[in-house]
């Protein structure tokens, strides 16, 4: 082990904290042996639905050394996004909390790049790539291995101190660092997330049928929403937070200090009536810097119309 490994590891963790990251843990860049079979089975069961990109780069998902040449360490980080203010659901469609504000991909990537630039001034040049929910990286697996948290029954990463309302990011680099140890699982016999899921997408502990998930139906799915989801969407027009909202560990969630994750003012003023009249122009204006742009105007309009039809049926 490099004599600087301990010093560099401590420096990286201290720097991550100073840049606003909630947690930082380190793993050795190696083959994810215990994740290979579950990923293969998940794909074989077609739990990824129409997310065909999940079938690509199978080997790279499991081995970061194939993704970043010469990599020796995976630095996992978490960044809190829990909002200070929740958008009212009264006479309103629902939107997942992570999408209240600016696109986290860009916000966190910018923070990471600045952080790494500073580290290179202190350590010297090193090879790296930064990832924020992008590229074939099994981020929860690396965060679990690095001790940031455990994978809950809803397949989200959970920590005792902060719950699960945070983004995950990685720096895969060629620095030799001191790896951390996994933490223990603290879900116990609780099954609130399983029981609360409106579409029964949690088929067993830690196993999600993505094709039944409301987030999948409202974001990833490009075709028409299947009849399976009728009367089960609970007014979610983009994403779904149910399995996180009911998790007892999220009572410890504290508001983020990141101003760029403050709720979009326009979203706070909208009601169902305004959403029904949404135009392409208004969509582009409101969601220009938002994760919601992923679903595009046509996708969001489809979601709203599907909710409308379900509502009409319920009121019949």
UniProtKB/TrEMBL annotation:
Residues 177-207 form the 4Fe-4S ferredoxin-type domain. One of its GO terms (biological process) is tRNA queuosine(34) biosynthetic process. It catalyses: epoxyqueuosine(34) in tRNA + AH2 = queuosine(34) in tRNA + A + H2O. Keywords: 4Fe-4S, Cobalamin, Cobalt, Cytoplasm, Iron, Iron-sulfur, Metal-binding, Oxidoreductase, Queuosine biosynthesis, tRNA processing. Binds 2 [4Fe-4S] clusters per monomer. Its cofactor is [4Fe-4S] cluster; cob(II)alamin. Pathway: tRNA modification; tRNA-queuosine biosynthesis. Its EC number is 1.17.99.6. The keyword Oxidoreductase applies. Its main location: cytoplasm. It comes from the Bacteria. It is found in: Cytoplasm. TRNA binds at residue 222. [4Fe-4S] cluster 1 binds at residues 187, 190, 193, 247. One of its GO terms (molecular function) is 4 iron, 4 sulfur cluster binding. Monomer. HAMAP family: QueG. Belongs to the QueG family. Catalyzes the conversion of epoxyqueuosine (oQ) to queuosine (Q), which is a hypermodified base found in the wobble positions of tRNA(Asp), tRNA(Asn), tRNA(His) and tRNA(Tyr). This is Epoxyqueuosine reductase. It comes from Chryseobacterium taichungense. The lineage of its organism: Bacteria, Pseudomonadati, Bacteroidota, Flavobacteriia, Flavobacteriales. The gene is queG.
């Amino acid at each position: 082990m490099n004599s600087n490994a301990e010093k560099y590891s401590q420096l990286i963790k201290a720097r991550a904290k100073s840049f606003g990251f909630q947690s930082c843990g380190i793993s050795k860049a190696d083959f994810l042996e215990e994740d290979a079979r579950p990923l293969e089975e998940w794909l074989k069961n077609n739990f990824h639905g129409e997310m065909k990109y999940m079938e690509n780069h199978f080997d790279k998902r499991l081995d970061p050394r194939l993704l970043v040449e010469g990599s020796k360490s995976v630095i996992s980080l978490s960044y809190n996004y829990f909002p200070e203010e929740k958008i009212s659901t009264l006479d309103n469609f629902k939107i997942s909390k992570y999408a209240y504000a600016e696109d986290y991909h860009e916000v966190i990537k910018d923070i990471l790049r600045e952080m790494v630039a500073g580290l290179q001034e202190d350590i010297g040049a090193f090879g790296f790539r930064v990832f924020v929910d992008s590229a074939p990286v099994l981020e929860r697996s690396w965060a679990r291995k690095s001790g940031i948290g455990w994978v809950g029954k809803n397949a989200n990463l959970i920590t005792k101190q902060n719950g699960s309302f945070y983004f995950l990011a990685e720096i895969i680099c060629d620095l030799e660092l001191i790896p951390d140890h996994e933490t223990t699982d603290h879900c116990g016999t609780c099954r609130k997330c399983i029981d609360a899921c409106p579409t029964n997408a949690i088929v067993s502990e830690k196993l999600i049928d993505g094709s039944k998930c409301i987030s999948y139906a409202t974001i990833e799915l490009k075709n028409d929403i299947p009849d399976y989801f009728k009367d089960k969407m609970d007014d979610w027009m983009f994403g779904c937070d149910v399995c996180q909202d009911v998790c007892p560990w999220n009572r410890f969630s504290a508001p983020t200090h990141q101003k760029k994750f403050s709720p979009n003012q326009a979203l706070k003023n909208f009601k169902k009536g305004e959403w029904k009249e949404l135009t392409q122009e208004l969509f582009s204006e409101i969601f220009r810097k938002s994760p919601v742009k992923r679903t595009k105007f046509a996708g969001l309009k489809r979601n709203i119309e599907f909710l409308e039809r379900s509502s009409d049926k319920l009121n019949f």
